[in-house]
Specification:
The protein is α+β, with helices and mostly antiparallel strands. The protein has a single domain, classed as Alpha-Beta Complex (50s Ribosomal Protein L17, Chain: A). The chain is built from 5 helices and 3 strands. It has a 3-stranded antiparallel β-sheet. The longest helix has 20 residues.
Length: about 150
């Protein structure tokens, strides 16, 4: 029985689960959007909210906790505290959005894209955009490859 056990196990031990979360958080901070499975995304969302709230605090102890959580990655902590937090100051939580991408080709796992709610001016959000003639690029590429064969 799982009495009062908090969090998701994700079929991993403690060490590999924490390194998975650390990698997902660092990638989202660095690239500002990542694609992952729905279960991993749902498991890492509260951790991301906690990171942003720590960075908003800005105290020395909060920065030390950020370094501890992100594995002493100075670039990630600097970008989080100097670039991302000023964009997210008006929010208290819900800093990251999950956009459904559909199933993965290999194993049919539900894929989602994690991205910050407030995007930078140089980075365009790809949600809701359409390409030529209202068709997505994936469908156009599939048609071209079928014609070539």
């Amino acid at each position: 029985m799982r009495k009062l056990v908090f969090g998701r196990q994700l079929k991993r031990g403690r060490g590999s689960r924490t390194s998975l979360f650390k990698g997902l958080m660092r990638s989202l901070i660095e690239y500002e959007r990542i694609s992952t499975t729905k279960t991993r995304a749902r498991a890492v969302l509260p951790e991301l909210d906690h990171l942003v709230n720590l960075a908003k605090d800005g105290s020395t102890s909060a920065l030390r906790r950020l370094y501890a959580i992100l594995g002493n990655d100075k670039g990630s902590v600097k970008k989080l505290s100097e670039v991302l937090v000023p964009r997210l100051t008006d929010r208290k939580s819900g800093y990251v959005r999950m956009v459904k991408l559909g199933p993965r080709v290999g194993d049919n796992a539900e894929m989602v894209r994690l991205e910050w709610v407030e995007t930078a001016k140089g980075i365009k959000s790809t949600t809701g955009t359409k390409s030529i003639k209202g068709k997505t690029t994936k469908k156009i590429l599939n048609k071209k490859t079928k014609k070539e064969k």
